[in-house]
Design brief:
Blueprint: E1 2-10, E2 13-19, E3 24-29, H1 35-45, E4 61-70, E5 79-88, E6 93-97, E7 100-102, H2 104-111, E8 115-118, H3 124-127, H4 129-140, H5 142-167, H6 172-192, H7 198-210, H8 212-242, H9 249-278, H10 283-303, H11 307-325, H12 328-373, E9 380-387, E10 398-405, E11 413-414, H13 421-434, E12 443-447, H14 455-468, E13 473-477, H15 481-486, E14 489-497, E15 502-508, H16 511-523, H17 528-542
């Protein structure tokens, strides 16, 4: 239930806090005092749309904070839950659940567990075909809930097997497509005939080719300088030393060392000359190196950062090809298991379909009886159950849709395509009355559900709101004395105008004030007759 609602800077609401109670809470008050703004605030904090034009004039943001109290339930949510949403004039949005920041979508999905808002344009749950099935199953109760649990277990097995088949290329086209791709990759790598260290060798050769002219020129110059200035000069020096080497051993040693240098220099000269001759590359060799390197680079982009990684990847996909080719036997086993699971699902789905169709008639009759009480005597709701032979959902093989005829002689149409806002609110009220014991949403909010009704219909609406409030916290904005008189808690909304601003005020009424408010909205003024009528209405509530 909602325990406290705090609103700041929305329309004429400056700063407002409201404490709500369990049961039927009815909000009445002056026209334009801000009653609808309270509903707008609840929609905002429930993740609904909010226009920044609704931010109070002169302020930079709007803020709504809600305190929910939830006793322990099946979702393990217990205790106080603080939910808030802050919207700034620049469009910035801040949503929090118990201090944790969340997205608007997360907020909306979370609040769906706790609050339903039904106004002139806010009956989206009633228009959602998926929830129509939930309404019907909730009405049926344990007769179908056990079968749904059993079906869901089979459905999960079916999904698991289907996923494993998909991972194992259980689909023949997908399997062949994958094999073709892997075999193409193996062929492409093997035809490249890659060798470890090959890329480095080719890079070195390309470096030589690109610098061949420069290399030849300098080797030629070096060869010429060694021959002319080196070998010849050393040869002359050796001959000079040979003439004195017999005089002293030290001259002989120098002569011997110089001869060693002379022979080494001759070797170097031959090497330089050979290098010079080896530097020549023809165009065919140049093209081969470039094409080979381009091929290696292309394979690296596809299969790995190095030749070693490419070759490793090739080995891996060969193993993958072998695995896929040997999967057929295992996949056949999975397909048999899947068929067995589907047979069990089909059996349960047919049983659930029969139960749903039988109870759809009962639900339709129950809703139509409520609509008669709500002075919609010509309206007929028809809950239709459709069985889809080739479809499998988590809840079976059914689609449930609510259809309606609002006037005699008209064709039956989907509920969302024919009912007006006021009709939708009353239809929802009738449905909620029928499903009050099975509906798990704790808070239900009706915005001006009394639009366009009076007399017997007003009494019926008031009684049904009261019945629903026995199982749910109900909030209702109303202009009818019948509904105000049925409330457990009455709130009066008014506006206060100062020199240059207007702001909304709210007050929880005492019993004598409740009588006066009922008298006011019944006749427009408080007098002896309207007070007597108000007391009479209030006594009906007590009885």
């Amino acid at each position: 239930m909602i325990t406290t609602l705090h609103i700041k800077n929305i329309g004429i609401i400056e700063d407002l806090s409201i404490d709500f109670q369990q049961g039927l809470n009815v909000l009445t008050g002056e026209t334009g005092a801000g009653k609808t703004l309270i509903i707008d605030s609840l929609q905002m904090v429930s993740g609904g749309r909010f226009s920044k034009e609704m931010i109070r004039k002169g302020e930079k943001f709007s803020f709504v904070e809600l305190c929910l109290y939830e006793p322990e339930n099946e979702n393990a949510i217990e205790g106080n839950i603080i939910v808030s949403r802050e919207i700034y004039s620049n469009g910035r949005n801040m949503c929090k659940i118990n201090g944790r920041m969340v997205t608007v979508t997360e907020l909306k999905n979370f609040m769906k567990q706790f609050i339903e808002i039904h106004g002139q344009n806010e009956n989206q749950d009633l228009l959602d075909n998926k929830l129509h099935l939930n309404y019907l199953d909730g009405f049926i109760g344990s007769k179908i809930s056990d079968k749904k649990v059993e079906y869901k277990e089979f459905y999960q097995k079916y999904c698991d097997v289907k996923q494993e088949l998909s991972n194992n290329f259980g689909d023949e086209k997908e399997r062949q497509r994958k094999l073709d791709l892997l075999q193409y990759q193996v062929k492409e790598i093997e035809e490249a005939n890659l060798k470890l260290g090959e890329e480095e060798e080719l890079e070195e050769k390309r470096k030589l080719i690109s610098n061949s002219s420069k290399i030849v020129e300098n080797l030629k110059q070096a060869d010429q300088l060694i021959a002319e200035n080196g070998i010849d000069s050393i040869s002359m020096a050796i001959r000079a030393l040979e003439k004195i080497e017999m005089i002293d051993n030290k001259y002989e040693k120098i002569s011997t060392d110089l001869k060693s240098i002379y022979y080494e220099l001759q070797e170097l000269s031959r090497d330089v000359n050979e290098y010079k001759n080896d530097v020549y590359f023809d165009e065919e060799e140049r093209n081969y190196v470039e094409e080979r390197l381009n091929l290696i680079y292309s394979l690296k982009r596809k299969y790995g950062n190095t030749i070693e990684e490419i070759l490793k990847y090739c080995d891996e996909i060969k193993e993958e090809i072998e695995r896929i080719e040997n999967l057929e036997e295992y996949n056949n086993k999975l397909r048999k298991e899947q068929r067995k699971v589907l047979d069990s699902m089909d059996k349960l789905a047919i049983e659930m379909n029969n139960i749903r169709k039988q109870n759809a008639v009962v639900l339709s009759e129950s809703i139509n009886k409520e609509l008669e009480d709500l002075e919609m005597k010509n309206a007929k709701v028809n809950v239709k159950v459709e069985y889809l032979e080739n479809e499998y959902f988590k809840t079976g093989k059914n689609i449930v849709k609510f259809y309606i005829i609002t006037n005699k002689g008209e064709d039956e149409k989907e509920l969302s395509k024919i009912a007006s806002g006021g009709e939708m609110s009353r239809i929802m009220l009738g449905i909620k009355k029928v499903l009050a014991d099975t509906d798990n949403v704790p808070v239900i909010i009706f915005d001006e559900i009394d639009t366009g009704i009076s007399g017997k219909a007003a009494n019926a609406v008031a009684k049904k709101l009261k019945v629903i409030s026995n199982k749910h916290q109900v909030m209702c904005i109303s202009h009818l004395p019948n509904i105000a008189a049925m409330a457990d808690y009455n709130y009066f909304i008014s506006k206060e105008t100062t020199v240059d601003r207007t702001k909304t005020k709210i007050k929880l009424l005492e019993e004598n004030e409740v009588i006066e408010e009922i008298a006011r909205i019944s006749s427009g003024e408080i007098n002896e007759i309207s007070m007597k009528y108000a007391i009479e209405l209030r006594n009906k509530k007590a009885s």
